[in-house]
Write a structure and sequence with these properties.
This protein has one domain. Helix content is 48%, strand content 16%. The chain is built from 6 helices and 5 strands; from the N terminus they run βαβαβββαααα. The strands form 2 sheets. A 3-stranded mixed sheet has the order 2-4-3, with helices on one face. A two-stranded antiparallel ribbon has the order 1-5. Helix 5 crosses helix 6. It binds zinc ion. Zinc ion binds next to helix 5 and helix 6.
Amino acid sequence: METIITNEHLVRLTEVARKFDSLLEDIEAVSNIQEWCEKRRIKENNPFRTGKCLKNRETGKYKILLAKEITPEMQSSVICAMECRSYCEEINALKNPSVFLTHLLLHEIAHARNENWSEQECDSWAFKELEKISV
Ligand SMILES: [Zn+2]
């Protein structure tokens, strides 16, 4: 796997997200999600975070943060966490950068759709949505 440069995919990701316009207000690629959060006094414990979904209390809409550069190590840790939660064929597809990012975005959108969903529920929903899109 190679490092994913998120900005190279942002136009397409924005198109994918358009379907969920009523929920989302912004998608932003930031160099370090933890630092971004610290500056705004938002709690974030994971220094290697690849994506995050934040609610704007004023508008009720969500902002999705994606890491600007996603290293092979970050990709592996996301994929491995999923393997432990058991998916098989779908996980192989995530080794493609474009598919990885789309799944990551959809996973964060899933959090916006239902704040009570578990990581696993968000992943399942994201895989289902992914099937509907040609990446
Ligand atoms: Zn999540």
